[in-house]
Amino acid sequence: MIEVVLNDRLGKKVRVKCNEDDTIGDLKKLVAAQTGTRAEKIRIQKWYNIYKDHITLKDYEIHDGMGLELFYN
C-alpha cells in the first residue's frame, strides 16, 4: 500500500491510498470518490508528462508519498 498526494493548485490536496499495481485509471476513480468529480474529467500529470489510464503506478515509478498534479478537464 502506498499513499499518493495530489495537488490541484486551487487549494485542495488529496491523499489517496492505493497499491503499486493499480493503474492510473484506478487512481482516478479513487480521487473522484474523494473529490466528488467524475473520473473522466480528471487528468493526472507530473510536470509535462500526462499519465495514461492503462499504465500502472509501478511502471511510472510512483512511490509512497509522491506528489502529483491534479487537473480538471
Automatic annotation (TrEMBL):
Q: Does the keyword Nucleotide-binding apply?
A: no
Keyword list, A-Z: Ubl conjugation pathway
Q: Does the keyword Lipoprotein apply?
A: no
InterPro entries for the chain? Hub1/Ubl5 (IPR039732), Ubiquitin-like_dom (IPR000626), Ubiquitin-like_domsf (IPR029071)
Membrane-spanning parts: none
Top-level taxon in the UniProt lineage? Eukaryota
Residue span, Ubiquitin-like domain: 2-73
Q: One Pfam family from the UniProt entry?
A: ubiquitin
Family matches, as CDD domains: Ubl_UBL5
Q: What is this protein called?
A: Ubiquitin-like domain
